[in-house]
Specification:
Layout (H helix, E strand, L loop, with lengths): L2 H17 L12 H14 E2 L21 E3 L6 E5 L6 E2 L13 E3 L6 E2 L13 E3 L4 E4 L13 E3 L4 E4 L16 E3 L4 E2 L15 E3 L21 E3 L21 E3 L6 E2 L13 E3 L4 E2 L15 E3 L13 H4 L5 E3 L11 H5 L7 E3 L22 E3 L6 E2 L13 E3 L4 E2 L15 E3 L6 E2 L13 E3 L4 E4 L13 E3 L4 E5 L12 E3 L4 E4 L13 E3 L4 E5 L12 E3 L4 E5 L13 E3 L4 E4 L13 E3 L4 E5 L12 E2 L5 E3 L15 H39 L11 E2 L2 H7 L8 E4 L3 E7 L5 E7 L4 H5 L1 H8 L10 E6 L4 E6 L6 H6 L7 H21 L14 E3 L5 E3 L8 E2 L3 E2 L14 H5 L5 H17 L14 H8 L4 H4 L17 H19 L10 H18 L4
Parallel strand pairs: 3-5, 5-7, 6-8, 7-9, 8-10, 9-11, 10-12, 11-13, 13-14, 14-15, 15-17, 16-18, 17-19, 19-20, 20-21, 21-22, 22-24, 23-25, 24-26, 26-28, 27-29, 28-30, 29-31, 30-32, 31-33, 32-34, 33-35, 34-36, 35-37, 36-38, 37-39, 38-40, 39-41, 40-42, 41-43, 44-48
Antiparallel strand pairs: 1-4, 2-3, 45-46, 46-47, 47-49, 48-49, 50-51, 52-53
Main location: membrane
EC number: 2.7.11.1
Membrane topology: Single-pass membrane protein
């Protein structure tokens, strides 16, 4: 009978266990059942959109075999819960604190929200604690600062707020702590001096918060520190001299604060220091000579302060490992004799001294600098004298910036040896003589700016040999004669500024080659003749300035075609006659139209830009009338109006009859020609491979459109994997039969898309169009989409792979925007539309169905989709205007997503915060805090090789900067896709040249 009460007791225990599985177990002994309860409570509190826990955390297996769970061998107790990059949402259950044997808790890189449970501070064995890169909010529980077992803590990249424990808080006790990062949050208050109690601390990162007050001098007592990152806060006061006691320090980041005073000489005691960032503060005084003792410095940022004095002459001898020297925007004076010592720095890549007050002659020793030097930036100083010819020795130079100085003499012909130079900026100096024809040998040049000098002679014919030239500015010089015909062959030219010379002649027919010209400025010259109708073919122009010349004749009607992009048009101070074209009322993007001081006559067009007197200037044309708002007198009524009406009764009917007959004839002719084209659907040899596939073969190839072959489904189409009769594996995109507008436009769309060929666009192989189905047969991509590789568990792309993919995408869009016969706007770029072939080469897809536009605003379809939320440019929603700049915005968001691995639709981006705003907060000081952490693990250990993060960090910083430039809210401020391509390629080449793998 005693057995019955015992069984009843056991039964009651099991009932309680299952009825109250989420009740804290603090009151009873912790055991395996407690661990199981805690894990199930954790699972119940999180969102698991990919089912990574649902399919594995089941009763069929021991919890010690569950994903991310590791147990001790002897007791089978949970010692580690590591679920980084599991795409988990929801909140963290406080029951996790019942895992009393837990030593490693890593929930980083998810989308968890809510507070950090304070109970975690009671875990007695916790050594690693990482919740980085989530959306957690609220304060950091104070108990965490009293965990004697903690070794590594990362709560970076969240929305945490509140304060750190005060200096007088005795509970702050982390005796084993080695690594702590709280960067990229909203923490306020002061930085506690209690960190001085952490005698084992090696890395402390508090960047990108809102910490105020001064830097605690007690930090100088933490003698094991390797990295101290306090940048991008609101710190005030001076830099404590006690930091000079941190003899093991490798990296010190204090940039982006409000620090003042001098740079402490004690920093010269940091003999292992490699990275020093003191930029964007209010530091004064000179660069201390004692700092030269820190002989391992390779990266020095002092820009954006108020430093005075001269640059130490022995700088290069003292810092032989220097790679990056940025001292721009200070008040430094003195000479350039430090250039001599920099020849000792054989790894120097960046030398940035712009916007100082350096007054000296450029030394010949400039040519002795490292051949690895990529960027030499000395602009906006008081540098004088001639440019030394030895500069031609700098074979690795990519950017040369000597503008806004007092340079004189001639441009050295030795520049022609700089084969890799992409940008040469010598504007706003006193250079004289002719433009050397040898510059035409610089075939890698993208930008040449020589404006506002004293150059004379003619424009060298050889400049037409620089086929990749995009920007040419020779304005405000003394150049004469006509523009050489060779310039009109520069088909990639985007900006041409020849204003302020004495050039003459008229527009040649060859100007038609400049299809991608964005800015044409020819003002203040002696050009004459009619304004060529060829200008109307340059539909990319946003700025057109032909003022102060001798042009005559009428405004050509072909300028009607500029209405798509033109923002600024100035034809003033010429001899132009005739009337103002009525089409000028459609200049929707125009912010300035100046037609003043010409010989224009007749009525002013009504409406459009002419209703805004702040945009239009028409003075000096006495024969103009109308437009009372513009201050002109009304036009006189037309004379003999009744007589004219009487004549129309007799003249109009014959005219109408003739027009009708001509229309019938033309219509018949068009049908005849179309009939011929149907018989020969591929006049272009490049289209000979395209064939029409039968519906029967399509059904067989997809196994009757089986779900097993379904690759993906969207709002306008479904995609199936298909095996054609010839064995070719393809993807078949079947149009949604319910979308009638898309169905009606299919044939026209196929005709357009079949002519779009580029290695980075998904190729159309065939088509099927009948009453049953309308489908495109496309190139199959075996490696799926970028979406899959970024946001699915078990997939990973390294840094170089991601760069290559983005280069591929940019090349595709450069083609669509600039090299296809018509401008094609995609309008829905996102990771799922970037597909990867067997070689991981990226191909942009879905640039057809309901999203193809010819020109910057006209769709060839009657129904269009607005794009995808998060990637869609702001102006789509506010104005509905579609342009290439919208694609650039989407590309920028894609770029940010690719390297942060955060979707713009992530749960953390709600309310006022967006992906771009989140990244902007981190740039540039805390870029490594927001990028995908896996990118930092692939080849280097941040703590063991402190120089390696500089290489990765510079690359990622450049990529993030480019993403932000592409995704600006204002379309006018966004970079253009044809500028994106060379920048991405430059970033890639720079990374490869620095990477140990290369």
């Amino acid at each position: 009978m005693e057995v019955l009460p015992a069984l009843l007791f056991i039964a009651i225990q099991f009932i309680l266990l299952f009825l109250y599985p989420l009740q804290p177990a603090m009151s009873r002994p912790h055991n395996n059942f407690t661990d199981l309860e805690s894990l199930l409570a954790f699972k119940a509190s999180v969102a698991d959109p990919h089912g990574l826990l649902a399919t594995n955390w089941t009763a069929n297996a021991s919890f010690c075999s569950w994903n991310g769970v590791r147990c001790s061998h002897r007791r089978q107790r949970v010692v580690a819960l590591e679920l980084s990059n599991f795409f988990l949402g929801g909140s963290i259950s406080p029951h996790i604190a019942n895992l009393s044997f837990l030593s490693r808790l890593d929930l980083s890189n998810n989308t968890l929200t809510g507070p950090i449970p304070g109970a975690i501070g009671r875990l007695p064995r916790l050594a690693l604690f990482s919740l980085a890169n989530n959306s957690l909010s609220g304060p950091i529980p104070l108990g965490i600062f009293n965990m004697s077992s903690l070794v590594k803590v990362s709560l970076a990249i969240n929305n945490l707020s509140g304060y750190l424990p005060s200096d007088t808080d005795p509970s702050f006790m982390l005796p084993r702590l080695q690594w702590m990062s709280l960067s990229m949050n909203h923490l306020t208050g002061s930085i506690t001096s209690n960190f001085a109690r952490c005698s084992q601390l090696q890395d402390l990162s508090l960047t990108f918060n809102k910490f105020g007050g001064s830097i605690p001098p007690e930090l100088g007592n933490v003698t094991r520190l390797n990295f101290l990152y306090l940048g991008a806060n609101q710190l005030t006061g001076t830099i404590p001299a006690s930091i000079g006691k941190l003899s093991k320090l490798n990296g010190l980041e204090l940039g982006g604060n409000y620090l003042h005073g001098a740079i402490p000489e004690e920093l010269g005691n940091l003999l292992d220091l490699q990275y020093l960032g003191l930029h964007k503060n209010s530091l004064t005084g000179s660069i201390p000579m004692a700092l030269l003792n820190a002989s391992k410095i390779s990266y020095l940022q002092l820009a954006g302060n108020s430093l005075t004095g001269s640059i130490p002459a022995t700088l290069g001898v003292s810092w032989p490992q220097l790679e990056f020297l940025n001292i721009h925007t200070n008040q430094l004076t003195g000479r350039l004799d430090f250039i001599n010592s920099l020849s000792n720095c054989r790894n120097l890549r960046y030398l940035l001294l712009l916007e100082n007050k350096i007054s000296d002659f450029l030394p010949d020793s400039l040519g002795n600098l490292s051949t690895s030097l990529n960027h030499l930036v000395l602009s906006s100083n008081y540098i004088k004298g001639r440019i030394p010819s030895t500069i031609g020795n700098l074979s690795g130079l990519i950017g040369l910036y000597l503008g806004e100085n007092e340079l004189t003499g001639e441009i050295p012909s030795e520049f022609s040896r700089l084969k890799g130079l992409q940008g040469m900026y010598l504007s706003h100096n006193g250079l004289s003589g002719h433009i050397p024809p040898e510059l035409g040998l610089m075939t890698g040049l993208n930008a040449l700016s020589l404006e506002e000098n004293a150059l004379s002679g003619t424009i060298p014919y050889s400049l037409g040999n620089i086929s990749g030239l995009q920007i040419l500015s020779l304005a405000a010089n003394g150049l004469f004669s006509s523009i050489p015909d060779s310039l009109w062959s520069l088909s990639g030219l985007r900006e041409l500024n020849l204003s302020g010379n004495t050039l003459d002649g008229s527009f040649p027919r060859q100007m038609d080659n400049l299809k991608f010209l964005d800015k044409l400025e020819l003002s203040k010259n002696r050009f004459s003749g009619n304004i060529s109708s060829v200008l109307g073919n340059l539909q990319m122009i946003t700025i057109l300035d032909l003022s102060n010349n001798s042009f005559d004749g009428e405004i050509p009607s072909s300028l009607d075609r500029l209405v798509i992009n033109v923002e600024y048009m100035n034809l003033s101070y010429n001899r132009i006659s005739g009337t103002i074209p009525k089409s000028f009322t459609n200049l929707g993007k125009l912010y300035s139209l100046d037609l003043s001081f010409n010989k224009l006559q007749g009525p002013i067009p009504e409406g459009g830009v002419f209703s805004n007197s702040s945009i239009v200037s028409l003075e000096g044309n006495p024969a103009l009338c109308g437009a009372l708002k513009l201050g002109l007198s009304p036009c006189p009524p037309p004379s003999n109006s009744k007589s004219n009406l009487h004549l129309l009764k007799y003249i109009l009917p014959p005219i109408v009859l003739v027009v009708l007959l001509l229309s019938c004839f033309c219509t018949r002719l068009i049908f005849l020609r179309r009939g011929k084209k149907l018989k020969l659907p591929s006049e272009d040899a490049s289209l000979n491979t395209i064939r029409v596939i039968s519906y029967r073969e399509l059904v067989r190839a997809t196994d009757n459109f089986s779900e097993a072959n379904l690759v993906g489904r969207g709002s306008f189409s479904s995609v199936f994997k298909a095996y054609l009769n010839d064995g070719l594996i393809t993807a078949v995109k079947v149009l949604n039969s319910e979308n009638q507008s898309a169905l009606r436009s299919f044939d026209a769309e196929y005709c357009a898309l079949s002519k779009i060929r580029h290695r980075n666009l998904v190729r159309i192989i065939s088509m099927c169009s009948n009453l049953d189905v309308k489908a495109l047969v496309l190139q199959f991509m075996p490696n799926g989409s970028l979406e899959q590789w970024l946001h699915s568990h078990g997939y990973y792309l390294n840094l170089l792979q991601r760069i290559n993919i983005m280069v591929d995408v940019s090349l595709a869009f450069e083609y669509l925007h600039y090299y296809h016969p018509h401008v094609v706007v995609h309008r829905d770029l996102k990771p799922s539309n970037v597909l990867l072939d067997e070689n991981m080469t990226a191909h942009v897809s879905d640039f057809g169905i309901s999203k193809l536009f010819l020109g910057d605003s006209q769709s060839i379809l009657s129904a269009t989709a607005p794009g995808t939320l998060g990637y869609m440019a702001p102006e789509y929603g506010s104005t509905g205007k579609v342009s290439r700049k919208g694609d650039v915005y989407s590309f920028g968001i894609l770029l940010l997503e690719t390297f942060t691995r955060k979707k713009p639709t992530d749960a953390m981006f709600d309310g006022e915060l967006s992906l771009r705003q989140w990244v902007t907060r981190a740039y540039p000081s805390a870029v490594l805090e927001i990028v995908d952490p896996d990118l930092l693990k692939e080849s280097v250990d941040i703590q063991r090789e402190p120089s390696s993060p500089i290489i990765v960090g510079q690359c990622l910083s450049s990529l993030i900067e480019l993403g932000l430039s592409c995704s600006r809210d204002s379309p006018q401020k966004r970079i253009q896709m044809r500028d994106v391509v060379p920048k991405l390629q430059m970033i890639k080449n720079d990374f490869l040249s620095k990477s140990p793998r290369s």
